[in-house]
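MODEL INPUT / OUTPUT PAIR
PAIR INDEX: 1
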Amino acid sequence: MFRTIVIILSALSLASCGGGGGSSEPTPAPAPVPAPAPTSLSFSTDVEEIYIHNIATLTWTSANASSCEASGDWEGSKELNGSEQLTLRDPREFTFNLKCSSSNSNVEQALSVTVNSPYLYPDHWDETQTYFNNVQEQFKNPVGFHLEEIWFKSLTIPKSRFSSALSDIFLEDPEFRSDVGYDTWINYKGSTYHLSCNWVPQKYGEGVAKIIEQEQGNFKNFYSYENEGCNHPLPLKNSDGSYQVVFPGHDEGKLAFAEAPFAPSFVFNLDTKEFVDMKLPLGSHGQAIFDYDLDGDDDFITNGFNHTDPERGNTELWNCGWGIFQNNGFNDFELIPLNIPDDVLNPNRQNGFVENEGCGGAMSADAYVEDGLLYVAYGDFNQNRNNADAKWLIERERNALVIYNANDLSINEVIQLPAPYVEENFVDLEYYEEAWIGNNGKSHDTHVQFMDIDYDGDKDILISNQSYWYEKTSVLQIIMNNEGVYVDETSERLFNWNIKSGGLHQWNFSDVNNDGYLDISTTDGCGGLGAASVEGIPRPWGCQKKVAVNDGTGHFLQIIGPMEIYQEVDNTGTDYTNEELTGSGLGAVFSLDEDKRARWAWISPKDCNDGCYADGNWVLYITSIDFNLSTGPNGIDPALVGEPGFNEFYYLLHNESAQKAVIAGEYENGLEHYIATGKAEGLLPNAKSISVIVVDTYDSNPQHSIN
């Protein structure tokens, strides 16, 4: 205080002193203090719209501010300059406010980020459940495997994701139809080819080969070839990357006229688009592609070439009908006969019968070669009943695995496989006809395939089991190879799976959801209910048109079926019917194109009903999904919510706590459970870490082995 007073007095003294008596000049006014610069703010976000569980980065820069405060969907004091990452988990609009202030001003800005859910669920569970319940009331045996709601709602692809493109075509063939026809596809030089061929029951020599060429869902060409009947188109890949498509002859329509089912075979040239006669009559019921000589060219095994050597005629038992067609180039095959265990051949019947003469047989087979051995699994297997000195004793009506020496085709071992699933587990089955007693049995085992479905390094076996008449079913029997012990695990490995469907003569393996595991697509007819009639069941319901994903351990769940493929109205509002289901036209043939997009091509008569000819006018449909299938809920890509590689089917199947929580409604799907708790608990999101064999990716064509 004293010092302050002194300063004031000194100032007064100075002001009163002066030289002479003149007046002093006025004191200039002090310069004005400049106003503080106003606060400024730049505030931005790197995204305006994202999916749930993704990150938005907020960035801001302020000037002349002493503090910044957040509000809205974030809060608290913020640095004057900075950025912040926020994980946004709820599907809504988020608002972020930021106010930066100084002593004399402030500025406030707001940003918004829209957060969407990628989940889209099917809305036809109640409808589907009603159909199953109504059908089950009519039968003693099950109508499917694991038909619970969780497997349908969490994984079925919604109907709204399908659409159809329509094209008019003209075919001058009154007998153009599907009937007993089997399908596959191949991608070649930018185009996808949907392949089909058929024969007609009770009609002599009435078959048609059908090829639809499309590119990314756009119809390009249709090729057809009238013939006596054919079976299972076989796209054979050559080591140089080229393909030839074999249509093996088969005409069971001739059986009604007491003739063997032989028919000419032919091959389709994908480069010239020509059908070429193979000069090879076959009665080829069951066949499969494999590489017999391991030269990189696909070969195939088939039955029905008992009489393919014209020099031998039709009376000599030189071959019992099974053999390998070794591929030596386009339309160039060497026929290698393959004996069923205990066959006794007679090279020349002119000299009379030989002791124990006779043939065994089978209706289907698949094969592979490994370590100098040829492994062949036979369906509808039976042995030479005339052989009193039989060495290999297999029970009647059972299937078998036969192991040959790959060099001389001598038989090393014969293994009896588990009984067909339907015979072992179902009641009141009937024989198709008396001739099947002791031979085919009550299960018609129409197709066989080796595939290491659980990726553990050994090949498992899949066999079609078809039962007939009232308790008609079509079951994909799954026989697991547990270190050389073959165990039926069918009921444990099929989910959301209808067995009241058309026959199961054909299926294909491909990686439909691009996760490095092979999935199944089935293809066959639509006669699902057999002799029964159930009111209110729509035509498509019983069609054998499935897409089923592999969880990575050999369990399969149907994500697409006929009710999704065959819809009444496409997304353009065009009304269409399903007349091809009556026999005319062509049923939906699945493909996975080079961009991994699932599509179906099918043909129906135009403007007429119930198996009509329509004066040659047909409508060709290409039905597509609007996205590429992946492994998240209902086929979405789990990377959309920041969890690439997550597998919804695997996670729910192998983590009981997650499955129960979803059933209880605590989480809307398994992926939400994984994000909330499962990841922190260390639950596995997929099978990759436990697979013995790991494959990164496959091309889009059907596969015959996992590697």
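PAIR INDEX: 2
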Amino acid sequence: MNRTFWLKKAVKFVFFAALFVVVAVFVTMSLWNWLMPMIFHLPVLNFWQTLGLVVLSRMLTGGFGRGGHGGRSRWAAWKRQTQERLEAFSPAEREKFRQQMR
């Protein structure tokens, strides 16, 4: 692949990522300004305050990465942990666990 192809792809990605952020902030701002002042008597927010609110909420509720499992789903991590625990059980403990799960 040539260099300009990847450059165009990167520029397109940055553009659409920025567009997504702007739309998400605008939707959040619109919902906030529509509901919160009327219901809870909170102030009306501008774009930058809403952007700060969105960033803060992402930081407090989950961060910006794919999670703490290296990109794998929580189900895969749970399955792996359960498998490791079962391997550590003695045969009697394993049978008791299987009976409890039924």
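PAIR 2 NOTE: DSSP finds four helices and no strands in the chain.
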